[in-house]
From TrEMBL:
InterPro entries: Amidohydro-rel (IPR006680), Guanine_deaminase (IPR014311), Metal-dep_hydrolase_composite (IPR011059), Metal_Hydrolase (IPR032466), Metallo-dep_hydrolases (IPR051607). This is Probable guanine deaminase. It comes from Podospora didyma. It catalyses: guanine + H2O + H(+) = xanthine + NH4(+). Keywords: Hydrolase, Metal-binding, Zinc.
Length: 475
């Protein structure tokens, strides 16, 4: 398990981060100074190690001795620091099922594959095995912050929070609320029982990290069909009572699901203005600026307008939407409506633990939307990387903390290294040593980043830090 740095740190080399939706900023020969609490305290351009040590370290009042200062050099060819990824939607409890979905679609997938596995994680030993693995796996892919769904079970949900804290991954951890339309062996017994269990889990998670330095609880109504109106109302009341809590749920993923919501929550029953899915969450006080809505594949114009007006956020899950054939979400359209978007792996609706893969698939799915007639739907490399970092940070309400290399933000970062063809100039090609991306040496930096997005994987993720602490190192 990783240990806290507790020392000041100096990072040297190339730094790349998003500064606007369609813009990456490149800082070469730069130095980033991270204090012992993991906060970025200074960024200096055109700064070699000698100047950093002799001029800047003393100015910060730091000691330069080996026991006081850690120096990390990331300046090799095709090597750069990049902000850690934010996975805005994934089910830690479904990780053993990645890739196992056959030809299912959402509602039969839930019953066939998902509920039985989630229910089985009330076994603490099994939950420990699964949750430890998913945390380490996602960290190894550069995910420094994750918005997790656990299960209905309180002790194992709390265990997930404990494990995130000990492995050092920033996380939102949600106990899943569901009191209907699920098998009797896997659902809350009543709205009151669901709310009590939710409070219990929130209290525990807040107790292990009272300053919310890394871990925070998140209200998690699974989705409207699995929550009765009294439970939805109770969760809306809880959201109002605890205005610091984020909320996460699913919306408008699959057409049969949407029909089910209209049937279960006719507007006469909720007092909503229409029968729309977004209107149901809104009617229960669950559509807020702290709400993370996964999918949003089939939203209507008026729903997108409502979501934007409430400042709720959307987690785009292109891997899942493709795998279980939900549809192609229109990200450009959402962005133009003013809806903040990030990326989610949505394991195990999605089969990949990698946000880089989600970024690649977001680019690809946007091209399918474009082929459907909306040419401007295409997302660029810069745009999908923005969604993976800054956009995701905003989705989870941490845009002041993470997502870029700004003074005052935490050092949540990854060191990316691409494979250099013939690094010693001896005509030797070192096949696959550094993964699937070959650098020939003549590429521009934007070309290198594009090659990483389209062909990179965890072999390129050399080191990962959260809040200054080294949490993964590729051996
Ligand atoms: N809708 C309700 N529950 C789930 C889930 O676990 N995964 C996905 N993708 N959609 C859902
Ligand atoms: Fe999901």
């Amino acid at each position: 398990m990783a240990t806290p740095s507790k020392k000041d740190q100096l990072f040297l080399g190339s730094f790349i981060h998003s500064t606007k939706l369609d813009e990456l900023t490149y800082l070469h020969n730069a130095a980033v100074f991270v204090d012992a609490q993991g906060k970025i305290v200074h960024v200096e351009r055109d700064c070699d190690e000698q100047r950093a040590r002799e001029a800047l370290v003393p100015r910060l009042g730091w000691g330069a001795g080996e026991d006081e200062l850690v120096v990390v050099r990331g300046g090799g060819t095709g090597e750069f620091f990049f902000p850690g990824f934010v996975d805005t939607h994934l089910h830690a409890s479904q990780y053993p099922n990645v890739g196992i979905f056959g030809k299912s679609t959402l509602l039969d997938w839930l019953n066939t594959y998902t509920f039985p596995l989630e229910a089985s994680l009330s076994d603490q030993a099994k939950a420990r095995k699964v949750y430890s693995r998913v945390i380490r796996k996602t960290l190894s892919h550069g995910t420094t912050c994750a918005a997790y769904y656990a299960t209905v079970d309180v002790p194992s949900t709390n265990l997930l929070a404990d494990l995130c804290l000990s492995y050092g991954q920033r996380a939102l951890v949600g106990r899943v609320c569901m009191d209907q339309l699920a098998p009797s062996y896997y659902r809350d017994e009543s709205p009151a029982a669901s709310l009590a269990a939710t409070r219990e889990s929130i209290a525990y998670i807040e107790s292990i990290d009272p300053s919310r330095s890394l871990i925070r609880p998140v209200l998690t109504p699974r989705f409207a069909p699995s929550c009765s109106a009294p439970l939805m109302r109770g969760l809306g009341d809880l959201a109002a009572e605890m205005p610091h809590l984020p909320i996460q749920t699913h919306i408008s993923e699959n057409k049969n699901e949407i029909a089910l919501v209209a049937e279960l929550f006719p507007k006469a029953s909720t007092g909503a203005a229409d029968d729309s899915y977004a209107g149901v969450y809104d009617a229960f006080g669950l559509l807020t600026d702290r709400t993370i809505l996964a999918h949003g594949v089939h939203l209507s114009e008026s729903e997108a307008t409502l979501i934007a007006s409430r400042k709720a956020k959307v987690s785009h899950c292109p891997c899942s939407n493709s795998a279980i054939t939900s549809g192609a979400a229109r990200v450009r359209w959402l962005l133009e409506k003013g809806v903040v978007c990030g990326l989610g792996t949505d394991m195990s609706g999605g089969y990949s633990p990698s946000v880089l893969e989600a970024a690649r698939l977001a680019a690809l799915v946007s091209r399918h939307v474009a082929m459907g007639g909306d040419e401007k739907a295409k997302l660029s490399v810069e745009e999908v990387l923005y969604l993976a970092t800054r956009g995701g940070a905003e989705v989870v309400g941490l845009e002041d903390r993470v997502g870029g290399f700004e003074v005052g933000m935490d050092w949540d970062a990854q060191l990316v290294g691409l494979g250099v063809v013939d690094p010693l100039g001896e005509g030797v090609v070192d096949d696959q040593e550094d993964g699937n991306v070959d650098v020939f040496g003549w590429e521009t930096w934007p070309d290198l980043v594009a090659k990483w997005v389209y062909n990179g994987d965890d072999r390129n993720t050399k080191k990962v830090w959260v809040k200054g602490r080294l949490v993964h190192e590729r051996k």
